[in-house]
Amino acid sequence: MQNEAIFLIEKLLNYYNLTSLQKLAEKLNIKQSSLSSWKSRNSVNAIKKKCRELGIYDEIFVINDFTSSPEYNYDYDYDLESPPSIYDEAQKKLVKQITKRRTIEEILKMDETIVISFVQVYKKLEEENNLIKLYEALGKLKYNS
Question: In terms of residue numbers, what domain contains 81?
Answer without folding.
Answer: 63-109
